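Now for a specimen:

…
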Amino acid sequence: GVCRHVANNKKSFPPGGSGAAQGRRAASAGELRGASARGGLAEGPGGGCRRPPGRCLRGSASRGPRRPWVYAYEDPAHPARLLGAFRGFYLDGLFTDIALQGASGVCLRCHRAVLAACSSYFKAMFTADMKEKAKSHIRLPELSHAVLEALVNYAYTSQIQITKRNVQSLLQAADLLQFASVKKACEQFLVRHLDTDNCIGMHAFAEYHNCSELEKEARRMLLWQFEDVWKQEEFLDIGKEKLAFILSRENLNVWKEEAAIEAVVKWVAHNVEERIEDIYELLSCIQIDLDNVYLRSALSLQKKCRLNDNKIRSLVYNALNPSPKGLSKRPTAAMYVIGGYYWHPLSEVHVWDPLTNTWVQGTDMPDHTRESYGVTNLGPDIYVTGGYRTESIEALDTVWIYNSERDEWTEGCPMLDARYYHCAVSLSGCIYALGGYRQGAPVGSCTYDKIQRYHSGSNEWSIVATSPHPGKQ
C-alpha cells in the first residue's frame, strides 16, 4: 500500500528532486562561497551543503542572544602525571638548570621551578636580588648528602622516609630550607615519640627550631611527669634558667616539695664548683622558706671545700624552715569522680579541691549511657575506656579523655577490642587494660585474656601479653 501510494504521487515531485534541491543545485559556486564566508551554508564534501559545525549545536528556532557552548574539562590525573614527568626529567638529567651540592661534594641536578614551588628559601633565592640567583651551582655544606637528597626526592615525589635516626637532621634541614610540610611531619613524628627520657632535650630542640606543638607537649610532659624526668641522665645537663622556670611553675606536678629539692641537689652535685652559687636561687623557686643566714654561711663554707652529694643534701635540709607557712601553695593532688550509676548512668564529673576542702563540678562526660568502664589517668588527662551500652548491653571499645587543666573532653584512640568490667591502670607513660568481659551481658559472658597497652606518644593500642588466669576476675 505504501509503494502504491508513492507511485501514485510521483507527479508531486518534479524530475531530479524537489524544488528546493533544484534551487540549491542552481546556485552558483560564488554564491555558495559567499554564504560560507557569512556563516551561512557551506559546501559539503559531496558537493552538497551543510551548516557550519558550531551551529549544529544550537536550535534553529532559538531566539535571543546566542551563547557559546563551554565544556570545562579537568583531568584529575594531570598533577600526578606532571610531577611524574618532572621526576623522570630529574632522574635523566633533562632540562635541569641548577645543581645543589651538600657536605659530601656530590651534586644533584635539579629544576629551579620545582625547588621554588616546595621551598620558600629557594623561591626567595631565585627571585630576589641575591648573588645565588644567577648561579647554576649552590653549595650547602651544612647539609649531609643523605638529607639533601631526601628533601630533593620529596620535591619530585611528595614522599619522604622519616625515622628515629634521621628525624632531627631532616627537621633542621627542612627548617633551614623552609620545607614547611616536611618540618611539620618531622615535628609530629617527634611528638609521637616523646617520653620522660628525652622530653628535656626535645623541649630545647623545639624552642630552637620554633616547633610550637613539640614545645608545648614536651613542656607538658616535663611538668606533669617531673618526678620521673629529674631521675633521667639528661636532667643533669639542663641549664639553670630552664630548671628555675620548671621549679617556679604553678602546675609543676610533684607529690611533695622534697622531690623538687632532691632534683636541685642532684643537679648541683653534678658540677658543684660551677653550680653551688645557683642553689639558693633554685630553692627559692620551690617556694619554701629558707634560713637565709644559715644557708649563706653554709654556701660560703662550700666554696672552700668540696662536698659530696650527701653533704649537700644535709646542707639543704638543715637550711629549711619547718614552719607550715613556708609550704608551697600549689595543690599536689585532687580527686575526680567520673560518671557512675544511680538508677541510670550518670554523666557528672565531680572534683574535690584539697586546698578548700570543697567539691566542684566539671564538664559532663559525653556519651555517658554506658556502664562498667575503666578509668585511669596519664598526667592531667583522665581516660575512660570501654564499658558496655546500657540500652543494648553492647560491649564498647571507645575511649574518652578528660583534660583536668582545660576541663574538656575529647575522643581518644579506640581500643583494639571492646571490653567491660576490666581494670585500667597507668604505668611509665602508658595505659594498660587488663581482664574484663567482651561478649553479651555480664552474666554468662566469656572473660578476656588479652592485655592491651596504650602509648600516648604514638596514640596507638597494642597487645602486649596474655593473662595467665583469664577466668579469674
